[in-house]
Amino acid sequence: MTLDISLDSRSGQDRVPLYSAEYAADPQGTYRAMRHRFGSLVPVDLVPGVPATLVIGYRTAVQILNDPDHFPADPRMWQRDIPADCPVLPMMCYRPNALRTAGTEHTRHRQVTVAGLAGVDLYQLHRTVEQIAMPVINSFCADGSADLLSQYAFPVIFATINAMLGVPDDIGAKVATGMAQMFEGTDAAAGTQMMENALYDLVRLKQREPGDDVTSRLVQHPQQLTDEELMNQVLTMYGAGIEPMLNLILNTVRLMLTDQRFAGSLLGGSLSTRDALDEVLYTDPPLANFCTTYPRQPILVDDVWLPAHQPVVISMAACNNDPAIGTGDFLDNRAHLAWSTGPHGCPAKSPAYLIAQEAIDQLLDALPELELAVPADELVWRPGPFHRSLAALPVVFPSTPPLVVPGS
């Protein structure tokens, strides 16, 4: 392919735009062209006028992710010069949470987050996903067709995260409305405010009436986070849970419906949903580029000077497929970077695996003759510098009577 290059008018440097439709349609082709031209460190634009360095070498990425002293995740120096209406700012701006802090502040927030998640009962979570998924499937199984993004994956993930966090229906409805405004762009600022207000309500509810849920464990942690810090930990769990989980489920279902190694498994073949999840996490991870850090001062890496305070973004998708380390063996091989690594490695890996696998298994058990409604090459990928996300996943299947939901 021809690498799409733009010229940064301020530095005179060629940069690859990560916001283009061409990149979204063929990221792996773009990474190969990047590697040929630039090596392990690529000058990119996240959106027009926002330069960054994209790390596409596996060993270089591991080195950076394990060096928080030189590569902290705190963006405050960077964002001073970023316009308030910059479209990537909401994904990258400072918040007092484990994702966007460094040093002792990060340690404090991460301890609380890890403890909150450690109390999740995985056996109960398995049952929770089952109890949520089956009524959602019943809402469309008689129709013979569905968009798995809007009609299945999103409602299942959203309800599951609400259950983990102990969110009552009234607060959950406000969170959903706020998220819809944020993602649909109708009024992102108002949506963000509505969601934050709802999560403050949740924090105060759990301070008065704690339960067996993640939010209550955050509130009760000995670190005694402030209400603002608590709200931001919960907000991060929505952000880190919904979009990546949505993409992981859809990308895995797409693989299973289009690759005969997995399509056969629907009728008793040898490769499992877990195998498909592992392959997607390697080859097509739900967050293609993320784990952003900001060097404290100019630093030399792989014979390239990285500017101080400019984003350094890890391409998990490119690093996982780095020819320097790639074996092509995805089964039972979990050395990929889809969960990141180092002090900012994902603390929710076990529940995330379980939710994705259970949601997929429930769907395919209920609708074993599921097929794509369009040819695979006609599926549309949403442009954007971070996610690897389908715009929709339309499917067809024989009309099926509603399932009997256990305990109903």
Kindly summarize this structure in a few lines.
With 408 residues, the protein is an alpha+beta fold. It contains 16 helices and 11 strands.
Characteristics:
408 residues, Cytochrome p450, 10% strand, 3-stranded antiparallel sheet, 6-stranded mixed sheet, 16 helices, alpha+beta
> What is the CATH T-level topology?
Cytochrome p450
Question: Which structural class do the helices and strands define?
Answer: alpha+beta
Run of helices and strands = EEHHEEHHHHHEHHHHHHHEEEEHHEE
CATH architect. name = Orthogonal Bundle
Low-pLDDT stretches are: 7-12
| Biggest pleated-sheet summary | 6 strands, mixed
Calculate Rg over CA atoms.
21 Å
- Proportion of residues in helical segments: 40-55%
CATH superfamily: Cytochrome P450
Assigned CATH class:
Mainly Alpha
Relative strand content: 5-15%
The dominant shape is: globular
Distance between the termini: 54 Å
Q: What average pLDDT do the residues reach?
A: 90
Widest sheet: strand order? Answer: 1-2-3-4-9-6
Count of individual beta strands: 11
Q: Please give the domain count.
A: 1
Continuous helix count: 16
